Fold this protein.
Amino acid sequence: MTADTLALLGGPKAVTASPRAFIRYGDAELAQLREALAQGTLFYAHGKKVKELCARFAELHGVAHCIPTSSCTAAIHVAVAALNLEPGDEIITAPITDMGTVLGMLWCQLVPIFADVDPDTHLLDPASVEARITPRTKAIVPVHMAGTPCEMTALRAIADAHGLAIIEDCAQSYLAEFNGKTVGTFGALSCFSINEYKHISCGDAGLILTDDDQLASRCRLLIDKGYDRSGLLRIRTTPFLAMNYRMTELQGAVALAQLDKLEGIVAHYRAMYERFHAAMQGVEGLHLPAETPGGRTSAWFYMLRIDEAALGVTRDWFADAVRAEGAPGGGYIPFPIYLNDIFANLATLGTSHLPYALPGVEIGDRYAEGACPHAEMLLKTCLNFSMTQGQTAELVDQYAAAYRKVAGYCLRQRAGG
Ligand SMILES: Cc1ncc(COP(=O)(O)O)c(C=O)c1O
């Protein structure tokens, strides 16, 4: 047995360092929560916490309006509903994302259409987006996955040429930049997640940004059963189909404390991501992620792709081997979003197949295997791990050593050594 012997085969682990201790929710969150409770109300329309959170988040982005929601899934539902599209209209989005990107579209009886991704950036390929536009297409929802911004110049040009709205899904991409502008400032509406797993968290909640006064008013009604809480009148009538997706003052309080930490967290994630990326350069058999030209990732997770033929092993074997070394690594979602039953088997409301059964809607092979070949290949061969505040330079260097060790073993086996 040598230092090169894989831990999976009884050798020593490449990772011996431990994560540094950090407190995610501490004194700052407690102080905010105390203040929220002392208000005597936890209702967003009466308290100050959610209002302050929204004011500060809008200011951070230089955007006129920020609307609070109970999750990013809710935020995207509201953003899509704010466009007031016709049932059966189509929205183009990415096939590699969280289900929260598309659920609200279906509840609005809109048809998600999936364009393929670039195999190196892993993000929506503008050429594929353009190829999927039909007379029914009304919007594009780019997902800045893993913290990496999409090619917004090309997507904006396509949207403008075809009169489409853009709703950015920024759930994973706080403070990511494209051409020097922060994501969340490119779309008519942009949606963020404050769930447990994101750069910042209050357990669960979401935020919508928009510069458009009318869209903002619609969003404000859509999150609160249609009730207008802005004036003294407190009008409790419902002008259109709305939801209750309100954020509480408790969520707002914790999110406010977390917002103070956001820049530091993003800086740490970026430093760890860039360090790992630099240490992984030139490893045969591994395709490292590419940044969108003009983009600056906010490094939510690191995703690379295994060349199974070059390494002579499967992605799952490689993942087991790096995990045995003590390094993180696993697949992302198991298959593209469109292979879930709600698409592939049109299993939506009862036996209705709505919205796919609406007159004029044709699904064809758009939810069939092969619809987005790059996305399918990527999800079968990717390995990813989240950046965390516990990671240190030493730990991340050892992760890279683990990946290099496993790749080196595979290549030697392939070469017959
Ligand atoms: C890209 C993306 N969009 C939307 C969502 C939905 O966010 P939430 O869990 O806050 O509803 C997530 C959450 O994982 C996400 O990663």
Remarks:
- The chain has a mean pLDDT of 97.
- DSSP finds 13 helices and 13 strands in the chain.
